[in-house]
Amino acid sequence: MRTFHRLPRILAITVPLAAIVATSACGTSASDEASPASTPVATAAAPAPIDGADGVVSQNRLGIGTAQVAAQAALAKCQADGLGFVTVSVVDRAGNVQAMLRGDNAAQHTVEAARQKAYTAAAFGANTSDLSERAKGDGATVADLPGTLFLAGGVSVKSAGGSIAGIGVGGAPDGMRDQACAAAGLDAIAGALG
What we know:
The chain is an alpha+beta fold. It is built from 6 helices and 4 strands, in the order αααββααββα. Helix 3 crosses helix 6.
């Protein structure tokens, strides 16, 4: 493992050194000495950072207050529809839970279902009801990816054209009713997304 990390550094030193030695071994003529630019010397340059000067990528995510507003609005919609026994989960793009509310009498399986629906929507940047077709087929499908759930009930939260979070609801008798609650959570924070 340590050799793997040293390999680029060794090459960065060895390749230019070999070029200098090769150039010296071949000798120089008076005309070459007069024009140092006429003798090409290979140099290895460090690759330019792709994502910024310091190589660090920043990631947008919901603030805790916004995540709580989304979760509360989603649960309130379900309660208004007589579905207070659901769980709502708001996750960032990586699937880390930012806010979760478990309604009265929500079964244990709704906790993980809500989180997985939210993560699936965030990771794929689409509502889970739109993704369910991708999970069908013979053999392995995206449904085999760990931590995902391709059932209706998850909505993607987008800002500046990219998915930054997901809101998932689990526990209603129909996934589209879960998704209506999750959509209410998204509607409640739409003005804050920019």
